[in-house]
Amino acid sequence: MRKFIVTLLLACSTFVFGQQTSLNKTKMNTIYTFKVKDISGKEFDLASLKGKKVMLVNTASECGLTPQYAQLEELYDAYKDKNFVIIGFPANNFGAQEPGSNAEIATFCQRNYGVSFPMMEKISVKGEDTHPLYQFLTQKHLNGVTDSEVKWNFQKYLIDENGHLAKVISPQTLPIDEEVVNWIKS
User: Fold this and answer.
1) pLDDT digits (tens, 9 = 90+) for 97-132
2) CA dihedral over 148, 150, 155, 161, signed as positive or negative
3) 3-state class of 176 per DSSP?
4) Which partner from 35, 50, 64, 81 sits 20 to 30 angstroms from 28, CA to CA?
5) What is the crossing angle of helices 102-113 and 68-79, to 10°?
6) In-domain check, residue 16
């Protein structure tokens, strides 16, 4: 009888542990576990985006791709009332093309492109000091979908309504590209 009870307890604990691991894995495979700081230094909880499709994009003010800000704003204006949001993450990882402070970046974005989508504080999107959110986005063992490398400024990560990585879009692909717009509409 004692052997039966021990076996039963082991079986139950294995089941409970397996269930807990499964729940943790599901939670870890979403952006909702992350809190970041906006460009003004206020905490921004990505869990507040539940139910929305999200585009995360690393930005830079002195890049040949910087004019994409105009199309990002156009896309945001067109779909912000349809459960879609763009979140910009300034980064200085490529050719030192985002040298400014958060305040300077905010002023640049507003003055030159009328950016109204949420902008976060400047972070690192690659290298040893990669922000944890971008570690999640680029590592399959964290995001559950794919490994990727941030290749340049304005790489886009599309996140579905459940907080899961859906697609990685090349920096050269314009924000209003048919592939992006069709994904938002789907």
Assistant:
1) 999 999 999 999 999 999 999 999 999 999 999 999
2) positive
3) coil
4) 81
5) 80
6) no
Q: How far apart are CA 167 and CA 12, in angstroms?
A: 38
- Separation of alpha carbons 75 and 177, rounded Å: 10
Give per-residue pLDDT as tens, 122-158: 999 999 999 999 999 999 999 999 999 999 999 999 9
The answer to whether residue 4 is domain-embedded is no
- For residues 15 and 9, give the distance between their C-alpha atoms in angstroms, rounded to a whole number: 10
Residue 123: inside a domain: yes
For residue 8, count other CB atoms closer than 10 A to its CB.
Answer: 10
CATH of the domain at 91: 3.40.30.10
Q: 64, 172 in Cβ contact below 8 A? A: no
Polymer length in residues for the chain: 186
Whether 74 contacts 43, CB under 8 Å: no
Closest CA to 116 of 149, 76, 82, 175: 76
12 assigned to some structural domain: no
Active site residue 12: no
Pairing of strands 53-59, 84-90: parallel
Catalytic residue from among 34, 37, 62, 63: 63
Look at the chain and report how many structural domains it folds into. Answer: 1
Provide the token pair at 35: 């809190």
Nearest to 155 by CA among 126, 117, 184: 126
Q: How confident is the model at residue 23 (pLDDT cuts 50, 70, 90)?
A: very low
